[in-house]
Amino acid sequence: MDKLLIRGGKPLNGTVTISGAKNAALPELCAALLTAEPVVLDNVPRLQDVQTMIKLLRNMGAGVEWQAEGSHRLVLNAGTVTSPEAPYELVKTMRASILALGPLLARFGEATVSLPGGCAIGSRPVDQHIKGLQAMGAEIRVEHGYILAKVNGRLKGARITTDMITVTGTENFLMAAALAEGETVLENAAQEPEVTDLAELLIKMGAKISGHGTSRIVIQGVDRLHAPVQPHPIVPDRIEAGTFLCAVAAAGGDVALVGSRADHLDAVIDKLREAGASINAINNQLRITMSTRPVAVGFRTSEYPAFPTDMQAQLMAVNCVAQGAAKISETIFENRFMHVNELVRLGAHIEVDGHTAVVTGVERLSGATVMATDLRASASLVIAGLCADGETVVDRIYHLDRGYEQMEAKLRGLGADIERIK
Ligand code: EPU
């Protein structure tokens, strides 16, 4: 199993290119299921979850090919889909497989998708996805661990108000409603930039959508969708950009992030400025300079545009080496402090009480072997390793590979002493 070996203590300097967003790529690959025409996506990140989604789509009979080796352009052809199914073997490795449910049901009138089950960061049910699609006329049974969904004729437009804001739920409804009969109104919709990017792709495919980027999205269903005329470029990954910003805030240095959207990172940038970083945005570049030890910053995760849960672990790592103490509240997932015990192994002072963690910064972390437990937890351990004394080994980095493209190569390009070992 691959590990990362980090020799900490070096500041980060130089330029790094930010990839396309994983959490936009995953629904947008599924959106290709909505048409028989070949859909071309650009800026697709080459990471493990995208490979899993490609496997899932090919397993249904879709043609999915990278334009060339190493290219970030993906050509998807769902004209050849024969089996609208997402089997347990693939879904268990990636919860986002649930994103196939809405488009399959809308285009083929049936879908069989395995229930994702629990995961490291919480129980994460999909009850809202099911409830919303039922409101659109789908008959859904859950049997033998599978969601069996079908609809007589087309899905019908409906008003859907979810109990909580759900990102992939909103995405499933958007895709289903695009091909439904009549009007769908999504109240309490997710406003994440990845949801907006999906809506923009669907509009390019002929969907009639308004209000995306707000909590109320209105979709007028159409009979059929087509391929976008031009390849659709996937929005930059704000979480990858935020992770690099945190790495610089913790380890010090001067880094330009190319291909990033500052307007998608307001809450993260505010917190890092509070921690002492100087951050400037020019066009599609973000530049961060950090020349002092960070100051501890408290924060609370919440839905976009507030501070993202996907950045909680990384900003916690910054707090681990900061001056002072800070309180962190996690409000989205019930069990997203799995990285705490591993950060403590590196010498961090953290106390957890329910959904709150109090971090008291230490001057120096000390390298050790630690274990990644989920994607963003892995990123926090890498950041901690970059500013720890001596050697840190991060084990189980398959978690990191699920959601970051070439993270260690990108960090090495900034001067970090980091290598992949077996
Ligand atoms: N929830 C339910 N029932 C549902 C749906 C959600 O109870 O039917 C609960 C969840 O358990 C959670 C909350 O609602 O407590 C919000 O979950 P949401 O549905 O928004 O999460 P998600 O769509 O499964 C996406 C991202 C996650 C990110 C969350 C929150 C993708 C593929 N995944 O998950 O990304 O943390 O939104 O922003 O878009 C990651 O990239 O590391 C990651 C975990």
TrEMBL record:
Its main location: cytoplasm. It catalyses: phosphoenolpyruvate + UDP-N-acetyl-alpha-D-glucosamine = UDP-N-acetyl-3-O-(1-carboxyvinyl)-alpha-D-glucosamine + phosphate. The active site is at residue 119. Keywords: Cell cycle, Cell division, Cell shape, Cell wall biogenesis/degradation, Cytoplasm, Peptidoglycan synthesis, Pyruvate, Transferase. The keyword Transferase applies. GO terms for cellular component: cytoplasm. The modification 2-(S-cysteinyl)pyruvic acid O-phosphothioketal is found at residue 119. GO terms for biological process: cell division; cell wall organization; peptidoglycan biosynthetic process; regulation of cell shape; UDP-N-acetylgalactosamine biosynthetic process. It comes from the Bacteria. Its EC number is 2.5.1.7. Pfam families: EPSP_synthase (PF00275). Pathway: Cell wall biogenesis; peptidoglycan biosynthesis. UDP-N-acetyl-alpha-D-glucosamine binds at residues 95, 124-128, 310, 332. GO terms for molecular function: UDP-N-acetylglucosamine 1-carboxyvinyltransferase activity. Residues 7-411 form the Enolpyruvate transferase domain. It is found in: Cytoplasm. Phosphoenolpyruvate binds at residues 22-23. Belongs to the EPSP synthase family. MurA subfamily. Cell wall formation. Adds enolpyruvyl to UDP-N-acetylglucosamine. This is UDP-N-acetylglucosamine 1-carboxyvinyltransferase.
